[in-house]
Design a protein that fits this description.
The complex is a heterodimer of chains A (405) and B (193).
Chain A (H helix, E strand, L loop, with lengths): L1 H19 L8 H15 L4 H5 L5 H5 L7 H8 L3 E2 L5 E7 L6 H8 L14 H8 L4 E9 L2 E10 L4 E8 L3 H4 L3 H4 E8 L29 E8 L11 E10 L6 E8 L6 E3 L3 E5 L2 E10 L4 E8 L12 E7 L8 E9 L5 E8 L8 E9 L19 E3 L5 E4 L6
Parallel strand pairs in A: 1-15
Antiparallel strand pairs in A: 2-7, 3-4, 4-5, 5-7, 6-8, 8-9, 10-12, 11-12, 12-13, 13-16, 14-17, 15-16, 17-18, 17-19
Chain B lengths: L1 H22 L6 H20 L2 H17 L10 H22 L1 H13 L4 H10 L4 H13 L3 H8 L3 H22 L1 H8 L3
The chains are: A alpha+beta (405), B mainly alpha (193).
């Protein structure tokens, strides 16, 4: 009887799974938006293209983008990557936050300004787009009926962000999003491998983090950053990047030569070197960099030698706030580089830029708690947010006006 | 299931910002909402209306209604649940209209036969034939979104306790049908099951 019940459960659950995974292609965006636009036209005699392509008003973001809950998405979606000795870190973020490729393609044609980054929920990319810092490339490579495109690139001296789009009608590829298709990504800087930027020159490891699977998603973006804040060499201000991506099932790699240029001339660079101590943990805020696209924080954490093994160390996170208590959202993977000593971590974190320059920045340090069931997971509260145990003694506030260049 | 619900909640947080943008007049941002929810809403309509064409029209109507009433949406419920509520009402209206007219019903059946169905959805349609519209909706909301009884109750304006009973009833009905199905259902339910 019990077996029968289990079998029934299994069958019933399988039916639910079949419903959930029903594979029907649908693209309602263009059709529905056309209907919306035509109804707007009926109401008001305004040119639809101009109206709909009107850049996102930054004012609408000011009120909304700082919600506390904003942070948890990236913290969860982007897994922690430990880069033991990597010169460059690549994060492939699945483009869950773009509109459909049909929409993105349409905005690149004609005189209407704007790139796919305009539709990103990453305020930094959106801001870079609005400020005209994004370079349109429209590079495209096709192998075996599968087209990969790199439509845009932007570099702010902290992170290189590249839009990635695919075009294919092959069902075997459409079962996954573009990130799922790409099995390998390699870059070279001015023809040299990433080891040339590595502090020890001994590794070419690159780490790629995949986001969650989204059905029928053809758009994503790649994010690449150097490790100059962790002992590596910096990317030049202007360089040629060779990007080689491999798509599973296609032997020929997709290679792109991309001119990259630092479009941010005025980086606010602060090196407070303020240290706080809590019991045996010492924390130094080494550097804060601010561009129109990114707020970057470099910290040095020293644990006692008895905690040299990483498993013994608490999983620390840093939350950045403006003077009004609004928290910045993380945009760059939580990468850390072990500076050769087990009990010393030199970390580099990227966040969205501030909408307006705050009078001060506060960094709060917290510990995340690992699940007892699955050590790879962090524990979440009832609202689904990662549980943070703050260390008030490690809190650091820097007044910006006094140190701004 | 819990994990996927958590991801959904993540999305709702993303979507919250888009909703606010739409509310402030950026209609184009609504494309992101359609992009995010179109598949589920379409599949929901498809299994209720039994026609891809009708489902596509219905899903478009649902999204347009959503946009028209976006000012009424508050973040107290997830946007997906709010859209499903619109979808629920819209599909119930369509089915009611259809039932009033037998010819129309026949047209739907013909429609369905003319469409290029594969065994996968055919099999699900055949099973759903044994459920009332309300039961189908409950099953779809449980399957597509993993909603709790309370959430589905809110979408469908039912009491959670009633809904729980209905769910148990439909579950038994379907299991009975699956067992009857013999060869038809054996293969798909055994593969990877």
């Amino acid at each position: 009887m019990n077996n029968r019940s289990e079998l029934e459960d299994k069958e019933f659950n399988h039916l639910k799974k079949l419903i959930r995974e029903t594979h029907l292609r649908v693209d309602l965006v263009e059709k529905t938006m056309k209907r919306v636009e035509s109804s707007i036209l009926k109401d008001k005699s305004v040119d639809t293209v101009e109206r709909t392509m009107k850049p996102v008003e930054s004012t609408s973001l000011k009120d909304t983008r700082y919600s506390r809950s904003h942070r948890r998405n990236v913290l969860r979606r982007i897994m922690i990557t430990v880069a033991t000795a990597a010169a460059a870190v690549i994060i492939l973020v699945i483009g869950t936050r773009f509109t459909s490729p049909t929409t993105t393609a349409s905005i690149q044609q004609g005189p209407v300004k704007g790139t796919i980054f305009k539709y990103s929920s990453d305020y930094g990319l959106k801001n870079a787009d609005e400020k005209g810092l994004v370079t349109t490339l429209n590079r495209s490579v096709t192998h075996e009926g599968y087209t990969l495109k790199v439509p845009v690139v932007v570099y702010d001296g902290i992170r290189v962000s590249l839009g990635i789009e695919r075009q294919t009608s092959e069902q075997k590829y459409l079962k996954e999003n573009v990130g799922g298709n790409i099995s390998d990504v390699k870059v070279s800087i001015n023809g040299k491998p990433p080891q040339s930027l590595d502090p020890y020159g001994k590794s070419s490891d690159l780490f790629i983090n995949m986001g969650i699977y989204i059905y029928d998603n053809n758009t994503s973006y790649l994010q690449i950053s150097d490790m100059r804040n962790q002992g590596g060499k910096a990317f030049p201000d202007k360089f040629q990047m060779t990007l080689t991506m491999t798509v599973s099932g296609i032997s020929e790699p997709f290679q792109f030569n991309i001119p990259v240029e630092n479009m941010t001339k005025d980086i606010v660079d602060i090196t407070p070197s303020i240290t706080r101590q809590y019991e045996t943990i010492s924390l130094t805020l080494k550097k804060v960099e601010m561009t129109l696209m990114t707020t970057n924080i470099t910290t040095l954490v020293k644990f006692p030698e008895s905690m040299s093994k990483h498993e013994l160390q608490p999983d620390l996170g840093f939350a950045i706030y403006d003077d009004k208590g609004n928290e910045l959202r993380a945009v760059r993977s939580n990468v850390w580089f072990r500076s050769g000593v087990g009990n010393v971590d030199l970390t580099d974190f990227g966040y969205e830029p501030f909408v307006t320059m705050p009078k001060s920045i506060t960094m709060k340090t917290f510990k995340k708690i690992r699940s007892k069931v699955d050590k790879r997971e962090f524990m979440h509260d009832a609202n689904g947010e990662i549980i943070r145990v703050y260390y008030p003694a490690l809190e650091i506030t820097i007044p910006i006006n006094q140190v701004k260049k | 299931m819990k994990e996927s619900r958590r991801f959904d909640e993540d999305f709702d947080i993303e979507i919250m910002y888009v909703v606010d943008k739409v509310k402030t007049g950026d209609k184009q941002a609504y494309a992101l909402i359609i992009q995010r929810f179109q598949r589920q809403i379409f599949v929901y309509c498809y299994y209720l209306l039994k026609s891809q064409e009708e489902a596509e029209d219905a899903a478009q109507d649902i999204f347009i209604k959503g946009l028209e009433h976006i000012d009424r949406y508050s973040h107290t419920v997830s946007l997906s649940a709010w859209l499903y509520k619109i979808a629920h009402n819209h599909c119930v209206d369509l089915i009611k209209k259809r039932n009033k007219n037998h010819q129309s019903l026949m047209a739907y059946k013909t429609n369905r036969e003319q469409e290029k169905y594969h065994g996968y959805t055919d099999m699900i349609h055949d099973l759903l034939e044994h459920l009332h519209v309300e039961e189908r909706q409950i099953l779809l909301l449980r399957s597509l979104e993993g909603y709790s009884y309370e959430e589905i109750a809110a979408i469908m304006d039912l009491k959670p306790a009633t809904l729980r009973k209905q769910y148990e009833r439909l579950r038994k009905k379907l299991i009975k049908q699956m067992n009857k199905g013999g060869k038809v259902y054996e293969q798909p339910f055994r593969i990877g099951g």
